[in-house]
Amino acid sequence: MHAKHHSPSFKRAADSTLSTEVLANVKELGINIAKACDLHLHELARKEKEAEWQAEHADFVQAYNQTVAEESLPLDTCRTF
Questions:
Q1: At 65, phi and psi to the nearest 5?
Q2: Cα 38 to Cα 77: distance, rounded to the nearest angstrom
Q3: How far is CA 29 from CA 10, 16, 38, in A?
Q4: How far is CA 10 from CA 4, 13, 62, in A?
Q5: How far is it, in rounded angstroms, from Cα 65 to Cα 72?
Q6: Alpha-carbon span 58 to 65, nearest angstrom
Q7: Burial of 14 from C-beta contacts in 10 A (0-12 / 13-18 / 19+)
Q8: pLDDT, tens digit, for every residue of 5-43?
Q9: 3 state SS for the chain
Q10: What is the pTM of this model?
Q11: N or C terminus: which one in the chain shows less Cβ crowding within 10 Å?
Q12: Quick one: pLDDT at residue 49?
């Protein structure tokens, strides 16, 4: 599977509302709001996709783990470490 790289070169405007406390804190700290939101949402989407994949493949992973527990890994006897 190829990992898709996050590309900030294509952007689109989006409106959002932040609490006044958060806005004041990030401005005081000099945090770029758009960049921080983009990075956070990118990571949030990645984690959500990972959770979806895990849910979709849970039966296979459980069956594979059961097989390994019962039969060990293929070629396990050939390992030299």
A1: -60, -40
A2: 48
A3: 26, 20, 18
A4: 14, 10, 40
A5: 9
A6: 10
A7: exposed
A8: 555 568 888 888 999 999 999 999 999 999 999 999 999
A9: CCCCCCCCCCCCCCCCCCCHHHHHHHHHHCCCHHHHHHHHHHHHHHHHHHHHHHHHCHHHHHHHHHHHHHHCCCCHHHCCC
A10: 0.65
A11: C
A12: 98
- What digits encode the pLDDT tens for the residues 48-79? 999 999 999 999 999 999 999 998 887 877 87
CA-to-CA separations, 68 to 40, 54, 56, in angstroms, rounded: 37, 19, 20
Structural tokens at position 11:
């952007």
Rounded Cα–Cα distance for residues 31 and 9 (Å): 19
Report how far residue 60's alpha carbon sits from residue 6's, in angstroms, rounded to the nearest whole number: 29
